[in-house]
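Quick one: structure for this chain?
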Amino acid sequence: MEIEIADYHNTRHRAGIVKLMAAYALDPMGGGEALPESVLTRLCDALAAESGAVSLLVFDDDDAVGLLTALRGFSTFKCQPLLNIHDVMVLPEHRGQGLSVKMIAVLEAYARKSGFCKLTLEVLANNVRAQRVYQHCGFAPYELDPSQGAATFWQKVLN
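Got it. Here's what it folds into:
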């Protein structure tokens, strides 16, 4: 298994990202619905246009089997950039091999080298398997003051 930082213009990387995002969307933890073809077609070009986007791909020979995508954010409390892990997925037949842990370790090394102050992510409340992976990697629920409770991730869909 080899982990590569994706080049959004590389044909092999583009194919891997599209394949894995399509599979991830169909998984119950990815929403359980197919992504529109128009999204899959535009995805790599849109990521390339995002100056703070970074994706990692795990290859088993030439077969893409794992994906992590993170996007740059900013911590006002640290006055430094951060990386938010947006997608982490490993194909079902390759799970249990520590690939998510390895991708997160590669991303952490990249983030430290690049001057990011922290990594953040969201995880579904019922995705206990992913929570265990993230805890193993040193993540914990975000809280400023334990008496105020942990932060929760909310959204308002605009389109």
